[in-house]
Amino acid sequence: AQKITQTQPGMFVQEKEAVTLDCTYDTSDQSYGLFWYKQPSSGEMIFLIYQGSYDEQNATEGRYSLNFQKARKSANLVISASQLGDSAMYFCAMREASNSGYALNFGKGTSLLVTP
Amino acid sequence: NAGVTQTPKFHILKIGQSMTLQCTQDMNHNYMYWYRQDPGMGLKLIYYSVGAGITDKGEVPNGYNVSRSTTEDFPLRLELAAPSQTSVYFCASGEATYYYEQYFGPGTRLTVT
Question: How far apart are CA B18 and CA A82, in angstroms?
Answer without folding.
Answer: 44
